[in-house]
């Protein structure tokens, strides 16, 4: 990326650049304002939350966080975070394992019905979850799994997130064919080829799957709302729900302190893996 | 695992035909093993539930007593005598029509700006992308409600300009826009995809266009847009399908009930309300099937229209 791409005379490029930077920075300020506001408000003492237009609190009120740590409905924040962690980690494991298995078959093996099944897999990417929601709920209800974490984790082990199968297929297709031909010549069957050659080389796709699964599961609200109803089983997202009904502004401080706590793992993930995230997203849309 | 299979009866012709027969068959078996979790999931958690959901849509079912066959009653009621259903459908359609084009336009504009910005591109790219990950959360939806509420920052800001709204969230005419703005704010994901697409546009095309005397606008219309059309199409399909299913922001902004005056009663919110609050599972299943059909039709229309505006570069 050393070459200057814009084929415009140099002097004009400079002014154009300055303008672009100024515009982008201004846009960023507006865009990131809600996040800054969230953090600032989580530290505001109660009397400043609504009465003051200033972004920064006059003094830091840690009481919002101590209140938030107590949790909701007698369930501590640690418990809520623990529940979220269990579900998200389970979902990550499930998606990484099951999606990479299916992707290997679609990307590298020949079998009858490969075409139609691949088309079916692609079609399920577009399927709204509501079309299968109610029967799935009934099944999990019959199995006595409603109000447990199973309905949120088990489907991931069956590669139901076709988006990630597709993403991994696209990636695996890019791995040179010669590698598994060489492995076959060396006497590797498909299983050994998968574990020794393809899986290690697919690490970027697997990491992308893992990170997105974690963040999306952590953020998910709808399924958790449907499947979990005992406060003990609540996730941090679900606990925030109790603030939805109350529009009383006195709870603003603790509410946003808890919101910050709920966002923290995502922010950390984002900072640690932003390169993978951005590139993983980019690779899903380009190339076919 | 084991070494290559020895073939003790080493008559060469027999061995060859054995290899010829066995090699593909063994691969076939392996493929089904690798595919088995997905196959099980597709059968048990996708295809069967779809059929069951179709069946349930013709019944009255409250989860506790056996489903009672009512024929087309759910659908008839939905289309002819349930104003809230229509309200939710119209709200969702309005929202899709407002949020998706604006979000994509913004994503494309910012991607174009970043593509020619040079230094600092990586930083901007990540910063603009951040809302796409955070924005789907309940936390941000709560922030949104507070910002647009009566006395919230946006409201206060507007009143300093003499525009007194009394909170967007409480105004039936404006609450939908608040939800749409939250979606538009998350333009980072399509932007990143646009940016990746822009990097694949061959530079020679711009040079050729310039030699032909094409100005900025002309180059954008004749080079960038056609070359970007597959990516634009991908974003359009993906964002449209997602937008039809929006739930969390609508739930949160409206205090969980789709208010004020049902103005943020989105399709999925009403589906949740019918199925899981009012225990009309059959009705909810019928709603889900209509949603499925509508999304199918919209996607098909997009695909059909794409023939006339999506340009596929064979070179790839």
Automatic annotation (TrEMBL), chain A:
<dbReference type="InterPro" id="IPR000515">
    <property type="entry name" value="MetI-like"/>
</dbReference>
<keyword id="KW-0813">Transport</keyword>
<comment type="similarity">
    <text>Belongs to the binding-protein-dependent transport system permease family.</text>
</comment>
<keyword id="KW-1133">Transmembrane helix</keyword>
<feature type="transmembrane region" description="Helical">
    <location>
        <begin position="205"/>
        <end position="229"/>
    </location>
</feature>
<feature type="domain" description="ABC transmembrane type-1">
    <location>
        <begin position="81"/>
        <end position="273"/>
    </location>
</feature>
<feature type="transmembrane region" description="Helical">
    <location>
        <begin position="118"/>
        <end position="138"/>
    </location>
</feature>
<feature type="transmembrane region" description="Helical">
    <location>
        <begin position="20"/>
        <end position="40"/>
    </location>
</feature>
<dbReference type="Pfam" id="PF00528">
    <property type="entry name" value="BPD_transp_1"/>
</dbReference>
<feature type="transmembrane region" description="Helical">
    <location>
        <begin position="85"/>
        <end position="106"/>
    </location>
</feature>
<keyword id="KW-0812">Transmembrane</keyword>
<protein>
    <submittedName>
        <fullName>Carbohydrate ABC transporter permease</fullName>
    </submittedName>
</protein>
<feature type="transmembrane region" description="Helical">
    <location>
        <begin position="150"/>
        <end position="169"/>
    </location>
</feature>
<dbReference type="GO" id="GO:0005886">
    <property type="term" value="C:plasma membrane"/>
</dbReference>
<feature type="transmembrane region" description="Helical">
    <location>
        <begin position="249"/>
        <end position="273"/>
    </location>
</feature>
<dbReference type="GO" id="GO:0055085">
    <property type="term" value="P:transmembrane transport"/>
</dbReference>
<dbReference type="InterPro" id="IPR035906">
    <property type="entry name" value="MetI-like_sf"/>
</dbReference>
<keyword id="KW-0472">Membrane</keyword>
<keyword id="KW-1003">Cell membrane</keyword>
UniProtKB/TrEMBL annotation, chain B:
<feature type="region of interest" description="Disordered">
    <location>
        <begin position="1"/>
        <end position="23"/>
    </location>
</feature>
<dbReference type="Pfam" id="PF00528">
    <property type="entry name" value="BPD_transp_1"/>
</dbReference>
<dbReference type="InterPro" id="IPR051393">
    <property type="entry name" value="ABC_transporter_permease"/>
</dbReference>
<feature type="transmembrane region" description="Helical">
    <location>
        <begin position="281"/>
        <end position="303"/>
    </location>
</feature>
<feature type="transmembrane region" description="Helical">
    <location>
        <begin position="219"/>
        <end position="238"/>
    </location>
</feature>
<feature type="compositionally biased region" description="Basic and acidic residues">
    <location>
        <begin position="1"/>
        <end position="10"/>
    </location>
</feature>
<protein>
    <submittedName>
        <fullName>ABC transporter permease</fullName>
    </submittedName>
</protein>
<feature type="transmembrane region" description="Helical">
    <location>
        <begin position="93"/>
        <end position="114"/>
    </location>
</feature>
<keyword id="KW-0472">Membrane</keyword>
<feature type="transmembrane region" description="Helical">
    <location>
        <begin position="126"/>
        <end position="147"/>
    </location>
</feature>
<feature type="transmembrane region" description="Helical">
    <location>
        <begin position="174"/>
        <end position="198"/>
    </location>
</feature>
<keyword id="KW-1003">Cell membrane</keyword>
<dbReference type="InterPro" id="IPR035906">
    <property type="entry name" value="MetI-like_sf"/>
</dbReference>
<feature type="domain" description="ABC transmembrane type-1">
    <location>
        <begin position="89"/>
        <end position="302"/>
    </location>
</feature>
<dbReference type="GO" id="GO:0005886">
    <property type="term" value="C:plasma membrane"/>
</dbReference>
<feature type="transmembrane region" description="Helical">
    <location>
        <begin position="31"/>
        <end position="58"/>
    </location>
</feature>
<dbReference type="GO" id="GO:0055085">
    <property type="term" value="P:transmembrane transport"/>
</dbReference>
<keyword id="KW-0812">Transmembrane</keyword>
<comment type="similarity">
    <text>Belongs to the binding-protein-dependent transport system permease family.</text>
</comment>
<dbReference type="InterPro" id="IPR000515">
    <property type="entry name" value="MetI-like"/>
</dbReference>
<keyword id="KW-1133">Transmembrane helix</keyword>
<keyword id="KW-0813">Transport</keyword>
